[in-house]
Design a protein that fits this description.
single chain, about 190 residues, alpha+beta, Heat Shock Protein 90, five-stranded mixed sheet, 7 strands
Length: about 190
Amino acid sequence: MIRIVYFIELSGKISPEFRGRLSKPGSGGQNVSPAPVDVKGMTLELWEPWQRMADEKHISIKFDLPEAAEVITDRVIFSSIMTNLFSNAVEYCPDGGHVECCLNVHSTDVTVSVKNSNRSLTEDDLAHMFEYLWRKDPARSDSIHSGLGLALADAFARSLAIDIKTELLQSGDFCITLIIPSVFPEII
């Protein structure tokens, strides 16, 4: 467990709030605390730390956000999922590429899609994206990346009843989509 927390700390793939929950003495596990979350506001807030890296890589950014998008979920866990998606989008996007984030509000859910330029992923890779410690190739085996990010995001998403899907678009772009229930389901 200590090694996993160490890799999580190194990767920067979780939000500072979640890091605080993990480090609380006697916490033992992660409690889910559903509350109203402004998905649009959180998306813009969590993007801020990645803007500088995007600028350095000359990545164009596009947001397609509705006026309002609110769900009932755990803010801290959800922010860790989004932090991971933004981190991956910017870090794996080639220089001069693009990142897009789109929110859509439906009657029973809100979808968040994060799309980025892609030069290396194939359809065969999609089946492995959420595997613990999976990395595409040796180039992704640097000391910064551990192969935990999307495995954690998937586990966090499941704890919040969020569906998470990956796809390669016709353009070749990689897209990851969260389908978030508008109301947190009762867990039996």
